[in-house]
Amino acid sequence: RLLPPQNVTLLSKDFAMILTWAAGEGYPPDVTYTVRYESQDRLDKWMKVPHCKNIPRAFCNLTCALSSFYVKVRARVKAVWGQSQSPWVKSQFKDYYSDVELAPPVLTLNVRENSIHVSASFPLPACVESLTWKYDLNLWEAGSEDKVILCFVSQQKKYEGYFRKDTVTINTTALRGNYCFSARALYESISLKHSEFSQPVCVLLNHKG
């Protein structure tokens, strides 16, 4: 009989709820894993996760399998090799709504004659596109600590594929020189959460000659 998987953890990372684990001692290289989950409002009702049945990898993305983002869930995993199965090992409880960890958005800059269009996007699971995300957008002159903070709300109907897009237009008539932009994602659940700021993107504005 196989020993149980080790270090079974339900974690939230970059907008996703992921179960991770490590192989037990003495596992053969072709061992596979099967994952199920239960929600706190339906205890002892373990739901199958079709895309995480007999998988070779040691993680399972549960985000879009969850029946609710507002109820705590936990998951369990077992190892399978031929006719041998390990005992199930359970994770701790978590819920997406209050535990979600955000990733910084990716900024795209489109410089026009007297304005700049800044688009913020980030990979989102399709199942969470109904939730409302916000961004803090920082703009400052390179070499200066005087940052101008702007805030804009993502439009729920503006997205392409799995990437949410939202654009803010900034009048650059009075800006001259090298300016940098950085943004972080915001989400208000039980408390206000935010991601780290994205890597700065800098452009030269109204440069003559």
UniProtKB/TrEMBL annotation:
Listed under GO cellular component are: plasma membrane
**Domain (Fibronectin type-III) ranges:** 4-99
Q: Which GO terms describe its molecular function?
A: cytokine receptor activity
Q: What is this protein called?
A: INLR1 protein
Whose protein is this, by species?
A: Sylvia borin
What is the gene called?
Answer: Ifnlr1
